Each structure stands twice: as C-alpha cells, then as structure tokens.
Q: What sequence folds into this?
C-alpha cells in the first residue's frame, strides 16, 4: 500500500481536531484510496500540551520537520505569516506537498511561494483556507473547470456573519454582538482582521484568482468592514426587505477584474440573504451554467479539519505521480479597475433635525445629482436626530459621493454624518 | 503536449452544446492543463443533421467508435439503456475512459458496468448524470471525501421543479404546467420518467451510493411522483408556511440506508424551499462539517455540456497515469430498510361533506391513533366537497396509514380519498 508520511505543524483547535479525524479515518482511507496516511511528527510551540493526547513524536522545531527527508507532506496549521511562511517555504523548496488553512499567508506571500512550488513540483492544497468546510477550491479547480466565470462572491467570514445575525435577531449593538462572538470563540481578542473585512478580502482574492485564472492581489482590493454598522440600520434594512451581509465580491468584464469587500443590502429573496450565523456561502455566475451557490459551516475546528483531511487525501493520491499535470497557481496579474460607471444603488440614513422641509431639501440635492428615490422611511421620533431612510434607484458612485458631501455640510438640517450602504448589484 | 483522443456518441442538445464548448475552450485547456483534447469522431443516429456543423468525421456506427484503438475516451450522450449500454460496455472492455450523462444507464446497469471498469482500469465519469451543472459527484468524491455522511437529499429533477413552481406562481393545474414544460423543452413527450419520480430516484440512488460508499439500488427505493398533486394543495401548503418540493432523500443510520422520493412540504425558511424553476439543489449533512447545500441549473444543453467538459478535463489529466489510485464504484450493497418507527408529520387534506361535526369526527379518529393536530385550515366554501386541511404533529407511519384507512371509509362525511403529503423530517 502507498504510504504517505505527514508532518503536522501547529496543534491548536484545527490541529487537534485533525488528529482525531486522522485516527478515526485511517482504516477507511486505506480501504477507499489505497493510501496509508502516516503521521510522522508534530511541531508545536508548546509540545507539553500534547502530552497524553498522541503517540506521535512532538517537537517545537518547525524546520526540523520540513527538512526531514522521510516526510512527503507538510500540513501547516500554525497561522500567521512569520513562522508559517518560513515553514511552507522550506517544505516547498524541499519538494514536499503542502496543505495549509492559512489564507493570510497565501494572500500576502503567495506570489513568493507559488514559483517555488512550480519549480520543485511540490503541490499546494488550500481548501481549508477559504470558507471552512465548503469545498470551493476543488469546485473551482475541478468541478467547474470548464466554466468561464463572470462573478464570484460570498459570505466568507463566519465571525462577522455571526455578529450581523445577532445584531438582527437580538437587536444587539455591534459591541455586544462582538463580545458574544469572542465569548464563544468565534472572534479573536483582537478582532480587526475579521471585522474590518481583511480576512474576507484575503479569501475573495484567492477565490477570484482561481475563478478567473488571473492573479487578484489583496493590494488591488477595496475593503470595508462592519465595525461602524448600527443595529438601527440592520433593522431598517430588514423592514425594507433587505438583510445586511458582509460580502466579498469579484466581477470580471472586458475592463478587468473588480474585487471588493463591503457591507451590502441583500434582497431577502436572494439566496445569500438566508445564510445565517457562522455559516459561509459562495455564489457564482458562469457563462455556461448560469448561477449557483454553495453553503456550509465557515469556521470551527472540526469543519476546518475535515477540509484539511479531504485535501490531504486528494494530494496524497497524486503524490509521486509523474505523469499528472501539476496544478497551477501562477496566473498573470489581473487588471484591477475601480468601481466603473455602472449604476449602483444605496441605502442612505440621514440624521436630521426635526423640522418641516428637511426631506424636501435632501431630495432636491439627490435630484440635482440624478439620484432618484425608490423608497423613503421615517419613523415618528421624540428626540433628535431624526432618521430619514432613503433607498435609491441607480446612479453612479461619483454622483453619490458628490451628493453626500453636499448634504453632510448642510449643518442647518444634518446632525450626523450620513450612513451609506450599498445594495447588492445585479450579479 | 499530452493528446487525448475523444469519440463522441450522441449529438442531441447536450452533444451539440459540447461541440461548441470544445471549440471555444480548446486553447484554454491546452494552456491550463497541458492537454490537447482531440475530438476524433462522432457517432449519431442521423449523421446528416451534423452536416456543416463540424469538420469531425461522423458515423452512425457506435461500436466502430468504441472499438477504435486510437481513441482514449468515449463521451456517451445517447441516453437510454439499449445502444448506450452496448457502447459503454464495449468502451470499458476496451479500456477507454467513459464520460456519461446517463443516470438511467448507471442506475439500471451500473452493477454490470462497474466491475468491467475495475477490471480494465477504465475510469467512468458521470458528473453530468446528476443535477446538471452542480458538481456534486466531484464534491462527494474529492471535496468532502473525509466526511461521514448522515443525510443526502435534494431537488434532483428540473422538470418537476419547474412544474411545481408554475403550479404555485401561476396557480395552474398540473396538466397546464406540464404542457408548458413540454412546450419549453423541459419535459419529454412521455413525461413519465420525470413526473413519477423515477429520474429523481435514479439520481438519489447514485448520490447515496457515493456519499455512503454503499450501493443503493433503484429497486430498494420507494418512489412517488407529482402527477396527482393539485394546485389547491400547493397553495394551501404555502399559506401554512411550506412549499411542496419533489425530494430525493437518503439517510443512513445503524439500521441501514433509507432512500426514497416523494413530494414533501418544506418549511419556507429551509434553503431547499427557495430553489425554484428548473434549478436543482443537493443538501447534505455530515458528522464533521454539519450541513451544506449546493444549488445550480439542473438541466439544459449548455449547463449539462459544461459538466461533461469538466469531467473530460478531470479524467483526461488522469489518463495514462499508472500510479494514481483508480476511483471506486464497487461498493458493498447497502442494507435498505423501510420507513422506521420514527415520528413523521403529514399534511392531510380531507374532502368532506358540508355539515356540522365533521372536524370532530376526523380528529377523534386521529386522536385514537395518537396523532395530534398542529394546525387546521378550512376556508368558507359554497359547494361540496369542503377541504379541511390538517397539519399534524409527529406520529408513526403505521398510525397514519391506519387512521387514513379508517377515515376514508367514513362515507357519511368523506367525499374523496384524503390527500396525504409528508412534511420534511428533521435531517
């Protein structure tokens, strides 16, 4: 039987879940794939923590593992871009297959790592790096390999989707929902990466690169997170028939690839609107097969470990095969372009004084900028500021920016900066 | 560059779409996969119809293609189980990779074909046989290969989902909606395979076999279609918060595998409820990664052809590789078991006379069989029969059968056979 010797780097939540899965599935993998997965050694910062949990030798020296000649495959679950980078680089240089769940590493250092992988022929699997248990990487590489993608987008960060769900369902403010996510282990002590959209940005960049076979760098993305969203906007959007989701969106046209992350009002009848809690979803549109969507658990030790193990199995079956084409990650750079002159729609919440004629003044400015109003909502209020909520029809991004600048300086009627959130565009 | 020589059998809607896709993608496939796909010959019943549409030699002799020693891969798009069976059998015996979109063939003849494939090492790809453009076969084989499946189910027949959508949205009766589907080319002149659930049965059997790695035969399925559904039931279910979908459902427990096809009331907040028109969806639940769902176009020439082409690419990269484990289709037979004694729920529509006390008599019978009522709906009516609609709480299948037998013989109050439709069970 083919034996594949594995070195595991990192033994946190995902790493220890993977240890369980490997134990449980060893015999099944032998039976179904004719492969004996042999976990040879584990490297972790605190080897003592694994005492009694495994019979596999444990070390704290990562590079001693990636340099071992008797290891075929390195599974990197350290995270971050420092030690993980050195380890993955070393493993690829040594010709070892690398399986990683590290989206930050690939997003920030992929352009350095992919050429090494291409040179030594070491394959690089990263199913677990994007959208947890959703097998979107395999789907892009194999399942939909014949398709020409026009759009790929999705809910790619479980933490922020959980926070948005709680802000809606419990009417909590942002900080209460964040605290809950931290208590449940869904959010880090420093939540910046998640809540500011950086993690989603890393992921949509990786997905767009694979879907379009053009490299979409993180630097080319515009990224906006959810930390300034208010419960009031989430509830108001809902009453207008929309749910606010943090979406990563990438669209390809003849002008190039437009990729971005921002909170978005999604119509309730769109399938992305009904993806709740820590679930993730990837929505795509192709020329040949129209649109489709995959949903699943986006976070958690076991869902992520199962994606790692599926990757291990896939690349283990390919390991040592000389006559199979290696997978490609070296795509030409995509031509990024800023928001084009397409018509976009906005949800606008104006915080105004409570006096007659305010709505007339606002709508005059909007009208001068060719922005027409689709719906207006103003609830009775006993204190200022009064919230006037407008959902617009389509206009250009430029006209919106100009009109909001103008309105926000009308100090006789406007009490606070206007909140503007994009509606989901036609995908 | 690796050259893969292909023989195409069948040049109907999917076949001619595939010809277009092959032409359009040839250069891209060379660039991305290092494979030159060479369409060598086409076999079709009416070679004349292809005149002017292709430069590839055309024949009407299927076996002359499968017997050619210079062909590596056969793409079978003939359909049915007669000529297609002979052709696929011949191709596999000759050691050629076979790509097929033919679920009936695999469902009815798979147990004869798989051993030939295993013996000669010829691989068999059938992504396009199930759920059109949804890459569920690759997902089960690779993307979720580490997962232990508990449930797989879905909307697997585009024709019936289109008919159900029209019956709801246009309030059409079944035969009007079927006619429309036939006019649009979504339904065959003889729609039996689709509307009686046979096609969905073939597909859920194939999916269950792959998900559980146990062979689920079509003979072990219970299958019920949509041809006796009435618009009234679709509208009534909707007003109660459910949408009626034709689901293929397969569940695995220690007792065995339960697989079936029947119309099902799906709660509107379940993701399967919002899959409309000719779209398909596959919902699954695994021990490691909880639940997930994939949606996409379930029918149509181009979506199906794109699934065929993705399969061609996948198996072309593996062709000729001696040291890669062949995929397995030879699973041990699943222990099938009938509906267990779990509690199930029903939507019941009683057609009754218009007199006092009817509901009391019905609910007495239900009560004697331990069936309690969750909700009742009776609209004012000017003519008999009156429709009394009951949604029940959970009871055993046996108790339902007994109580309905009893009620339907109460000729003083019941005018027509009671309509009983299952609610979606806890998955």
A:
């Amino acid at each position: 039987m083919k034996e594949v010797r594995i070195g595991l780097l990192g033994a946190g939540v995902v790493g220890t879940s993977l240890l369980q899965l490997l134990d449980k599935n060893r015999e099944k993998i032998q039976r179904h794939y004719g492969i004996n997965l042999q976990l040879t050694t584990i490297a972790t910062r605190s080897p003592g923590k694994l005492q009694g949990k495994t019979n596999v030798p444990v070390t704290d020296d990562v590079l001693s593992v990636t340099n071992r000649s008797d290891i075929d495959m390195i599974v990197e679950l350290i995270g971050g871009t420092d030690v993980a980078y050195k380890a993955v680089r070393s493993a690829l240089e040594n010709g070892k297959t690398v399986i990683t769940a590290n989206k930050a590493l690939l997003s920030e250092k992929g352009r350095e790592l992919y050429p090494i992988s291409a040179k030594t022929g070491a394959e690089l699997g990263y199913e677990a790096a994007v959208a947890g248990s959703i097998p979107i990487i395999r789907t892009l590489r194999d399942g939909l390999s014949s398709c020409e993608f026009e759009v790929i987008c999705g809910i790619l960060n479980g933490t922020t989707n959980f926070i948005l769900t709680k802000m809606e369902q419990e009417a909590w403010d942002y900080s209460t929902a964040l605290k809950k996510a931290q208590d449940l282990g869904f959010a880090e002590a420093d939540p910046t990466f998640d809540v500011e959209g950086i993690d989603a940005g890393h992921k949509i960049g990786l997905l767009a690169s694979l879907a379009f076979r053009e490299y979409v760098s993180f630097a080319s993305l515009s990224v906006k997170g959810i930390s300034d969203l208010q419960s009031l906007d989430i509830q108001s959007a809902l009453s207008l028939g929309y749910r606010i989701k943090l979406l990563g969106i990438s669209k390809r046209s003849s002008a190039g690839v437009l990729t971005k992350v921002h909170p978005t009002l999604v119509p309730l009848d769109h399938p992305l609107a009904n993806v709740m809690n820590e679930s993730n979803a990837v929505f795509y549109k192709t020329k040949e097969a129209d649109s489709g969507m995959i949903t699943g658990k986006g976070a958690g030790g076991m869902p992520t470990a199962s994606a790692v193990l599926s990757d291990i199995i896939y690349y283990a079956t390919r390991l040592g095969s000389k006559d199979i084409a290696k997978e490609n990650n070296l795509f030409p750079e995509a031509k990024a372009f800023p928001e084009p002159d397409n018509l976009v729609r906005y949800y606008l919440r104006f915080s105004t004084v409570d006096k007659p004629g305010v709505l007339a003044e606002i709508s005059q400015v909007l009208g001068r900028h060719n922005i027409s109003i689709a719906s207006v909502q103003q609830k009775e209020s006993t204190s200022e500021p009064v919230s006037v909520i407008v959902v617009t029809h389509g206009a250009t991004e430029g006209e919106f920016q100009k009109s909001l600048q103008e309105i926000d300086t009308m100090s006789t009627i406007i009490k606070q900066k206007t909140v503007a959130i994009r509606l989901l565009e036609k995908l």
